[in-house]
Structure formats: C-alpha cells, structure tokens
C-alpha cells in the first residue's frame, strides 16, 4: 500500500466533515483556530465543573435543611414562639416533599450521567 496522498486525506476529511476546530471551513486548522478551539473546550469543561459544584452544594444545602428542620421546630418551641413552631409544622409536609424531590433529581441526574454511553 502506498501512503495516502493529499487527495486521499482531503477526501477523507470531506467524508467526515470539517474538523470542529476549523471554524472558517477552509480545511486547515490554523494556529488561531487551534487556540480558539482549545479555549472553547477549556471553557466547556470549566462550565461543566461549575455546574457540578453548584448542584452538589444545592443537594447538600437541601439535605442539611431537611435534617435541621426538626431541630428548628424544637428550638422554636423551646424559645416559646409557638406561632412559629405551628407554622413550621404546617409547612413540614410540603417542605419535605420538595426537598426530597430536589435531592432525588440530583442523584437521578448523577446516575444518568455516570451510566456508560453506548
Ligand atoms: Ca481554517
């Protein structure tokens, strides 16, 4: 077999489509295009990382609120603000379901993302 000629490479590239870094579509990745592409990729990764951090923080915050809720009710009773304790008690049902939904959505999304893609 002979080594691929320039025409072969061009044909292969045409079949696959342009390289994603080749933003002006001239079939050649220049230095600027390469840098732009790498910068874009880096930003993408940073965004994904920031999103994961935000979601994790939210899940932890929700869980902490859920665990501290009874303690807050207890404190309200002990301090003697009965009205606050009563309102917190009335809110509890809605609150727990909402927080459970947030946490479930977080772990569900995590599970879906970590599942290997076929
Ligand atoms: Ca180009």
Describe the structure.
By secondary structure, the chain is mainly alpha-helical. The protein is 79% helix and 0% strand. The protein is built from three helices and no strands. It has helices at 6-16, 31-79, 82-114. α2 (31-79) runs antiparallel to α3 (82-114). The radius of gyration is 27 Å and the shape is rod-shaped. The mean pLDDT is 84. The chain binds calcium ion. The site of calcium ion has 7 residues, from loops.
How would you summarize this macromolecular structure in one to three sentences?
The chain contains three helices and no strands. By secondary structure, the protein is mostly helical.
Helical residue percent band: over 70%
Please state the structural category.
Answer: mainly alpha
Q: What is Rg? A: 27 Å
Q: Figure out the total of helices.
A: 3
Proportion of beta-strand residues: under 5%
Number of strands: 0
> What's the average pLDDT?
84
**How do the SSEs run, as a string of H and E?**
HHH
End-to-end distance: 34 Å
Major beta sheet, specifics? Answer: none
Query: Which hetero ligands occur in this complex?
Result: calcium ion
**CA-based shape:** rod-shaped
- The low-pLDDT segments are none
């Amino acid at each position: 077999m002979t080594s691929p000629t320039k025409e072969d490479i061009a044909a292969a590239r045409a079949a696959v489509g342009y390289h994603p870094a080749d933003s002006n579509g001239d079939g050649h990745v220049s230095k600027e295009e390469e840098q732009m592409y790498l910068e874009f990729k880096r930003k993408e990764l940073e965004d994904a990382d920031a999103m994961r951090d935000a979601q994790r923080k939210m899940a932890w915050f929700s869980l902490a609120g859920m665990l501290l809720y009874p303690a807050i009710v207890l404190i309200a009773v002990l301090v003697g603000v009965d009205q606050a304790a009563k309102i917190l008690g009335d809110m509890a049902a809605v609150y727990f379901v909402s927080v459970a939904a947030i946490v479930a959505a977080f772990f569900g999304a995590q599970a879906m993302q970590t599942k290997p893609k076929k």
